[in-house]
Write a structure and sequence with these properties.
It comes from Propionibacterium cyclohexanicum. By secondary structure, this protein is α/β, with parallel strands linked by helices. The protein is 23% helix and 19% strand. It is globular, with a radius of gyration of 23 Å. It starts with 24 loop residues before the first strand and ends with a strand. The structure holds zinc ion (2 copies).
Length: 466
């Protein structure tokens, strides 16, 4: 039986049955043997809370990724047909559902969506949700989401109307508390759902090495003894399992700095712009290395909108895609401080620059004065890795130009060793490993639940039914 055939029937309503009085049910609609696409529905007879609403990424994204484009206006209905969106009644924007869809039925219970952080495998489908449903996230996540739209990023559907959580939100008889964690994007948090019959804790994505993991360690303390602990397990997906020390942000900059020092000419880099802290650090470090960091237009607009200082992008002398040009226009029109540089300036002093590439405009590398042997410093920017469809063509371009890849990444996810420690000391009634290809690799002395797609579980992990 294929993975899809084994799931709830395509497009049909699921998750609608009300739990018994005083009973909380938990259903998982993604992140099951995949990295990302997390969606956790917590329901009582009086309320529903959905934790994250992520898009499938990497190996789970082939149906609507790479050369395949979504059909305009059918982004949701097509995904429902192939189980890339859960059939939860009353969740989705009715305007995007077929007339006869049973999912248009309103659920009488108050329902709210909570976003752990602004990565697309957690927030990517928020624009498809019924606009009448409250959407909550940390203040920094709200800011980042708005900055990304400002810079030209388009959500599926409409821009999510996120509200900033102060500390807790009451939804019927469920109380949801946001607790900061360390990840690689501003505003990442986990959630604690206080239900009448127990407590569910959800990590979102986290690690225990960025900033010494102080937020994540505080989160671990805060959720100790939860009835059900749902944890990400990204790094259990890869062998050999990483248990040792992880590169620090200083290490990342040090590797990048050494690569720049080895080349007298232009150096190239890819860093993920939503890691605002790393981007900001790179701008400052490049300056110390005698180089100016140059970003594509939309990335520059995004970083400037996030308050990053010293942002430099291309002027009109370098052709960029329409998206990048529009980003620059938006930044300038909004009066944001973005400096520009021209191709001729870079050509006359290639060693004075460090350039972020646009992975969607690979031939544009030909405009740059790159010499064979020049470094492409990969620090988790696009293309993200071999699991992405644009990785192979990008490597072909690097090879054609004689560029040398320098790996300077540092994961945003907890190592296998840190995860094991975290769950071993969690005191949780049951642990649910999620958001990883090999959840079965998580070990602990107590119960572990490997949930099935769409099945209802009690907070103690026992099966409630479909
Ligand atoms: Zn994730
Ligand atoms: Zn993430």
């Amino acid at each position: 039986m294929s993975a899809i055939a084994g799931r709830a029937t395509a497009g049909r309503a699921s998750g609608g049955a009300e739990p018994g009085a005083g009973q909380t049910s938990v259903r998982f609609y993604g992140g099951l043997r995949e990295i990302g696409a997390s969606k956790i529905l917590v329901s009582t007879a009086r309320a529903r809370v959905l934790l994250d609403i992520g898009l499938p990424m990497g190996e789970g994204s082939e149906l609507f990724g790479g050369v395949v484009h979504e059909r305009p206006g059918r982004e949701l209905s097509d995904r429902l047909r192939v189980n890339q969106a859960p059939g939860i009644p009353g969740l989705w924007d009715p305007a995007l559902l077929p007339e006869q869809s049973p999912l248009r039925a309103r659920d009488p219970r108050p329902t709210a969506l909570f976003i752990s952080h602004a990565h697309l495998d957690h927030i990517g489908m928020a624009g498809l949700v019924d606009p009448g449903i409250a959407q909550w996230a940390s203040g920094e996540t709200v800011r980042l989401s708005r900055a990304s739209v400002f810079a030209g990023y388009h959500y599926l559907g409409r821009e999510p109307q996120l509200q900033a959580i102060d500390s807790t939100v009451q939804v019927g008889d469920l109380r949801v508390e946001a607790v900061p964690v360390d990840h690689d994007v501003p505003g990442a948090c986990g959630f604690i759902v206080h239900a009448p019959d127990g407590v569910l804790a959800y990590t979102g994505d986290l690690n225990f090495h960025r900033h010494g993991g102080r937020n994540s360690l505080a989160f671990a303390q805060r959720v100790h003894g939860a009835s059900m602990l749902v944890t990400e397990t990204t790094m259990l997906s890869f062998e050999p399992l990483a248990t040792g020390p992880v590169r620090t942000e200083d290490d990342v900059l040090s590797i990048a700095g050494q690569a720049c020092a080895r080349t007298p000419g232009l150096a190239l880099v890819s860093v993920y712009e939503r890691d605002v802290e790393r981007c900001s650090a790179l701008i400052g470090a490049a300056r110390r290395w005698g180089r100016t960091m140059v970003w594509p237009g939309a990335v520059a607009a995004f970083l400037a909108a996030m308050g990053v200082e010293g942002v430099v992008t291309w002027d009109r002398t370098r052709p960029q895609t329409a998206l990048q040009c529009a980003g620059l226009d938006a930044a300038l029109a909004a009066g944001l401080t973005v400096q520009t540089v021209g191709l001729s300036e870079v050509a006359s002093d290639p060693g004075g620059y460090l350039v972020q590439l646009d992975a969607r405009d690979m031939p544009a590398m030909l405009d740059l004065p790159v010499e064979p042997g020049a470094p492409w410093i990969h620090a988790q920017g696009e293309p993200l890795g071999p699991f992405m469809p644009d990785w192979a063509p990008f490597q072909a371009w690097l090879s054609a130009l004689g560029l040398v890849r320098v790996d300077a990444g540092s994961t945003g996810h907890a190592t296998a060793g840190d995860l094991t420690d975290f769950v071993a000391h969690s005191g949780a009634g049951v642990v649910v490993p999620l958001h990883g290809r090999h959840p079965e690799r998580l070990r602990r002395p107590g119960p572990i639940l490997l949930p099935e797609y769409g099945r209802a579980y009690a907070l103690d992990g026992s099966v409630l039914g479909r």
